[in-house]
Amino acid sequence: MHWADVIAKEVSKKNDHPTIATGISPTGILHVGSLREAITGESVRSALKELGSDVRLIYLIDSFDPLRRRYEFLPNEFEKYVGMPISCIPCPCGNHDDYAHHFIQPFLDVIESLGVHSDIIWTHDLYSKGKFAETIDLSIKKRNEVEKILNEVSGSDKTFIPYIPLCEKCNRFTDPIIETYEFPCVEYQCKCGHKGTADIRMMNGKLPWRLEWPAKWKIFNIAAEPFGKDHAAAGGSYDTGKRIIKEIFDGDPPYPIPYEFVQLKGSGQMHKSTGSSVTGLDAIGMTPPEVLNYLFLRVNPQKAIDYDSGIGVLDISDEYDRMESLFFDGNIAETEINSVRAYEISQHNNIPKKKPFHVSCRHLVNLVQIADDFNGVMNILKRTVNLSDIDDADIKRLKRRSECVRYWLNGFAPDTVKFSICKNIPGVQLSADDKAYFKILNKKLQNIEWKAESINETILEAAKSSRIGVKKGFQVLYKILINRSTGPKLGLFIESMDPTFVIKRIMEASQ
């Protein structure tokens, strides 16, 4: 049974109307690994919905977190905002409401395109609406009990601050001295020297993370939540949260779904034009949504994922297509059951009504480099394959995949897969034996079916019957077409090209 189905069954036993939570703190550019939490949460939501549950997925944006330092990607002027809530810091580009919105909006666009069905909730809005007031009140009143729990679980002996006011003078969160508390007001002294009053029903301060997390569980009655393995470590924030919500907030902890981190792998791990690591926006740019979902769903959350933005992008796309074929055609081996189920869940309960038209991702890499645009890709396919059963959904999907391949080629693809068709015969030195080979090949190509297998056989025959041999025969053919000695699989590659163009180029090379 797929891991999402296992979790869904466990959650449904205890909750008639379960709420699944995911979230993030958008203090900077969001790495591709941040997608794992959102996709994991959506997969459990989908599995619960399939069981008939009235389920809700919420995406909590920690927009009231402080900017902890000026990151290297920020201008020097942002040094003055360190310590302030990111929802109160100006947008770095000037096109968004604030700093938090600047970094989260591209990510929200990505998860929407992935089919993640979530309600977006901003933490600073919750504070401004007084949603945390009850848990803040309990945290301050039961400060000694909270401190005892935190120290027992974490093994420390630190003094605990239950509430962090936002200084009304310097607009920063600091480690304050809380002088008095009488609901709803906290009197504090900030490190800047200012003495002030914070109303816990307003956006005047926040709970520290180890209290804020279980407070969210209480506010939304969270049934399950995926989170990084660091929070699941012994004595970590999930362990303290379990006791806080039970003993301080009178609630129940969610079903834990800890996940391993995503590691970047391969030569394509950095965007070649920007030098930055792969972002969520990059991932959806070069990988179709359903394939990206499958990438994360095919393994248990507690297993690490090596994200390879190089050739791995082609591998995962072709694996996805193979699982899709198995889903529609049957004959699924026992070892493939969970992978096929991962394909099914990756559709978020919107499985195609018929088996989609498939073009190998590797072949598509060749097509988009041969053709000028998508219409050109379709013209090649019309000439080389049977498209009688293709429909609008197939064309839409193929267009999206073509766009993904172009994105990948422009930023992450290794140079070994890149090429361009030479409009004129390149200035390569061809020997008399090379030219004789091209004369033989030209004659043989005149009367064959323009299919990859026939083309490949003809090239082999011509090379063997000439004096240059097979290896050199392939090399010089690549040379006159793309000015390289290696390239895509030659038969399929030449089949995709206009026969008139190819034969004319070979004839020119034979002169």
| Alpha-beta content class | mainly alpha
The count of helical stretches stands at 21
Shape: elongated
Largest sheet: 3 strands, parallel
Which consecutive residue ranges, at least 5 long each, have pLDDT under 50?
A: 267-276
Strand order of the largest sheet: 1-2-3
What is the first-to-last residue Cα distance?
65 Å
Q: Count every beta strand, where a strand is a DSSP E run of 2 or more residues.
A: 12
- Chain-averaged pLDDT: 93
Taking all Cα atoms into account, the compactness measure Rg is: 29 Å
- Seen as an oligomer or otherwise, the chain set is single chain
* Helix content bin: 40-55%
Strand fraction: 5-15%
Account of the protein in words:
By secondary structure, the protein is mostly helical. 47% of the residues lie in helices and 11% in strands. It has helices at residues 3-14, 35-50, 99-113, 123-128, 133-141, 143-154, 209-220, 229-232, 237-247, 280-286, 289-297, 312-329, 337-345, 361-370, 374-384, 392-411, 432-445, 452-465, 469-482, 490-495, 499-510, and strands at residues 19-24, 56-61, 119-122, 164-165, 177-182, 185-189, 195-199, 205-206, 224-228, 255-259, 262-265, 305-308. The strands form 5 sheets. A 3-stranded parallel beta sheet has the order 1-2-3. β1 (19-24), α2 (35-50) and β2 form a beta-alpha-beta unit. α6 packs antiparallel against α9 (237-247), α14 packs across α15 (374-384) and α14 (361-370) crosses α16 (392-411). The relative contact order is 0.09.
